[in-house]
Amino acid sequence: MVLSLRRSIGGVIAGLAITFVLIVAAEVFSMNYHPFPPGADTSDHAVIKAQVASYPTWVLAVGAAIWAAAWLATRLGPARHWSHGLTVGAILLALAGFDMAMLPYPIWFPVVILVGFPLGTILGTRVAQGPPIPKA
Questions:
Q1: Of the candidates 79, 97, 34, 94, the residue with the CA atom closest to the CA atom of residue 61
Q2: What is the pTM (predicted TM-score) of this model?
Q3: Residues 112-134: what's their mean pLDDT?
Q4: Which of 35, 70, 97, 113 measures 20 to 30 Å from 105, CA to CA?
Q5: How many of the other CB atoms lie within 10 Å of CB of 101?
Q6: Which among 62, 64, 65, 69 has a CA at the least distance from the CA of 17?
Q7: Pick from 11, 2, 7: which is nearest to 128 by CA?
């Protein structure tokens, strides 16, 4: 029981950790290909909002790998149960909601996130569960 609980928590933490790595990679990618204007005060919230509002579509599309986190959490959890991936997907959807409430993304971006995160979570958990085991 304790080992199962540890694996459950570990799977969720690993899924969130891989998401953190992917987000940092997407931010580094974004900073290199769509940098702030020279001399911009990056601690000013208005400057950050203006930068996000000017993001090209392809920069926003880089961060669409939610299925990887759900896949990892499901794969590492005991019995490859879908609840681990679902937990990671729900946490990330809530965090994305906070982010979208603070910054002026184009109208299509929240729609894609609200559809893509649940679909990515379902895809990741389904793939991680593997094929059903045939009954003998």
A1: 34
A2: 0.75
A3: 79
A4: 70
A5: 8
A6: 69
A7: 11
What sign does the dihedral 82-87-90-96 (CA atoms) show? Answer: negative
pLDDT digits (tens, 9 = 90+) for 45-59: 888 888 888 877 776
Percent of residues, the chain, with pLDDT higher than 90: 0
CB 70 within 8 A of CB 125: yes
Strand, coil or helix: what is 46?
A: helix
DSSP collapsed to 3 states, 12-27: HHHHHHHHHHHHHHHH
